[in-house]
Amino acid sequence: MNLQPKEILTEKDVECGMKLGIREGLATETMNVMTTGAFLTALSLLLGASNLQVGLIAALPAFSNISQLLTIWLVKRYNNRRAISVLFSVLARIPIVIIGIIALFFPNSISVQFIILFLFFNFFFASMAGLSWNAWMKDLIPEKIMGTYFSRRSGYTQTLNVCMSLIIALGIDYMKHHFPKLELDVYGSMFILGGATGLLGVFLLSRIPEPKSFLGDENVFRLFVMPLKDNNFLRLLVFNSFWVFSLNIAVPFFTVFLMKHMNYTLSYIITLTIISQLCSIATIRSWGIFADRYSNKTILSICAPLYIICISAWSFVGIYTEFISNFALLIIIYALMGTATAGINLSLTNIGLKLAPRKEAIAYLSVKNTITAVFSFIGPLIGGLLADYFTNKHLNIRIEWIAPNMDKVFRLLSLNQWNFLFIIGALLALISLEFLVRVKELGEVEKNLVVKIMRSSIRNNLKDYFVLGNMLNWHNHLMAIIRKKKPENLPNEIPKQV
């Protein structure tokens, strides 16, 4: 198989590569649906994973980003991104198949420690392949249609994710209810099938042509130090690192909380995840338009507080025993989380690209990914330790009404092992916003002005922006309460021009 890059690609080569890229994306997404997310967490809990082990599994994808420095060296050394991406993609998928084989045919030998070991190699090699793939696709896809192409590719993969996740969750719940002894066999089969589909994706990947790239002679370690001398980029790194650390204390344990404390089945959990994904898909275009028109930092200052409110709202899940009340609250939380996540991820990616000089972009982004990966790795581990510490600890705040004909207790707040975790994560994330203020972005527009303009746009385009509603200014009230001052009264008139 010839994996050498070509000096010149014809229009037919590019068109063929783009079609293969979509097929490869669907194969890879199939693998990811079967072997990551809620299904991986469910398998870990089935094998008796502790809170620390769940946190470690959640931390592995982020920690594996440290391998990207090695990828830069390999790309500069061999100048063959396709070969590097194909090789490490194969090495990443083989551990997935091995986990499935052991779980299916040697169930007595499978353990959480075994899964963690092989997942480490899976994520480590996948991260190496991913950075090489990004650089490869950047040169292959024409810049004028890059946004259209990747949005179409993302649309296909997200649609596949939604459909497959729900079908698989219903199937697992059925097997768990009627044939509980076969539950581990189901997960083993999923990993084997997922890994095999992933290897099919690697075959499709190997057929995508690669244009030859021209690289400089800079020293890799010198490239790594360069972004750290950029004060504005360093401020972005501080905010981003503190932010991901705060979120990863709480977010990886949402599924664990729903399964262990709320006793939710996978079908309900996947349904909530799908709601979040749909809201993300529905709003990401709007966030992109406003980010381009105003600034990414402004979008962050809107979405980040909204996400913090959602994390805090988890403390109210489970206060009452009614299933409908809790599930309705979770639907609202997941919908707003999906909306906020779309804006946060888009803005963090774009602001990193915007602050990185064109010639040193790969070095800046690698440094950003590597440093934030360390904090993303530490967060879930701290979360797991905190979850163990708060075991059997409770804080209840309630109001009791006593009358001759009625004795009623209203529960306002009930914190247990997991709720403490969510409150701590939300508070730390709120503190991290102070670091965002120090980041400077060219073309930055004052936040309150953008909120007013967005509200006007939403009212005029209610059909397109119905998900956003009046949530855009919630964080103003939150910060006003914390700082003990009244929020600013915003004028009703919206300026016609900015």
UniProtKB/TrEMBL annotation:
Designated name of the protein: MFS transporter
Annotated TM spans: 38-63, 84-106, 112-136, 156-174, 186-205, 236-259, 265-287, 299-321, 327-348, 369-387, 418-437
Instruction: Say which species the protein is native to.
Output: Emticicia agri
PANTHER family referenced in this protein's UniProt entry, alphabetically: INTEGRAL MEMBRANE TRANSPORT PROTEIN-RELATED, MAJOR FACILITATOR SUPERFAMILY (MFS) PROFILE DOMAIN-CONTAINING PROTEIN
Q: Which GO molecular-function terms appear in the entry?
A: transmembrane transporter activity
Which of UniProt's keywords are assigned here? Membrane, Transmembrane, Transmembrane helix
